[in-house]
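User: Good morning. I'm curious how iron/sulfur cluster would be positioned relative to this chain. Could you predict the structure with it bound?
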Amino acid sequence: MLQLDTRLSISLSRASELKDTIQDYLKIKDHIPTGFTTFEQFLQQKERILTAFQASEHNWQDWKWQISNRITTAEQLAQFIPLSEKKIADLNTIGKRFRWAISPYYLAVMDWNNPDDPVRLQAIPQIQELQDEKGELDPMGEEYSSPAPGITRRYPDRLIINVTNQCAMYCRHCQRRRNIGTIDRHLALDQLEQALDYIRKNPEIRDVLITGGDALLLSDSRLDWLLTELDRIPHVEIKRIGTRALVTLPQRITPELAAILEKHPPIYINTQFNHPREVTPEAKQAIDRLIKAGVVLGNQAVLLRGINDNPHVMKKLNQELLKVRIRPYYIFHPKKVLGTAHFSVPITTGIKIIDQLRGQTSGLAVPQYIVNAPGGLGKIPVSPDYAKVIAKDHAILRTWENKLIKIEF
Ligand code: SF4
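Assistant: Good morning! Here's the predicted structure, ligand included:
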């Protein structure tokens, strides 16, 4: 073994090399806004919304108040955000084709003075939605993988129940915008019964994802009933819930809802934070409540042009999520959904992001990058090319720092 001072000198030199590799992120990271660093602005905007609605803090914390006071017209929106006459006309035109609605909470999260704000871009329609000629309404072929009402089945041991088309906000990049329609509707009870029957009759199904729309927009009693019925099916081992309520309607996570979820373990909730600005103190309160109830939380971000198609923003997002105890799980490549082409990015962008996360930050902050195969053929994990050569007796692999190493078998 080398002398102590030589070992120390090598270690110091390596530590200094590692320090150098993170300098570009350190320079930028404090300039990427989060829901915590912009909380003052949030509070001021929230106050203005409450005044305009003549509402109280009590109303604000009531998720049903949030839903019934969603902003759905350009005229309402213009009370809060400076909008040109053209933008107002555009919003009215787009609204006739693609419905939009923004919860008062999510309105308070965005930056009212910045038209390029990443939160705003997810919520306020842009005229490009009507100029997309390549997108399809159902690129995933979900309509062709539904063996029973409300069910989507694309894998051997798991399936989805789509329990509602309602969401607190209609995200402009939504892959299920074909379901949004013009009115909110939950799956009828008899259809839910048929979906449950399908699960009962197929014993290989061990994992059920309850989603929508937003699954947490079901009433407490309907959710409790559904989770109880699933618990009664011996082969259902885990329940998952797909919701964006933590991002767009954290008020939905009431103590009563948390108590219901706590009765039905194991429950996994996957949500969709796309930008660190969405990780707010109000969201954290809701997250804490879920974690206390024993719910395991994961994030499925969607890679979106102008919102998070940047390695530094994605790193910050994932690090902020870990701080509030949400595990970054997937980054989805955006699908070719009609009206969303302006958010699309090449696959190379996603690969570059993963390449710049791996090694540069904890593995916990590196989600899997997923491209969904068209036609319902499932998720394809896509990674940077770490394996350069795989031969019978050796492999040449690339490290996160681009060093090639040879492994002999
Ligand atoms: S919450 Fe999900 S389902 Fe609802 S509009 Fe947003 S992306 Fe679509």
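The longest helix spans residues 4-21. The pocket of iron/sulfur cluster is lined by residues 167, 170-171, 174, 176, 212-214, 244 (CB under 6 Å).
Let me know if you'd like a different ligand tried.
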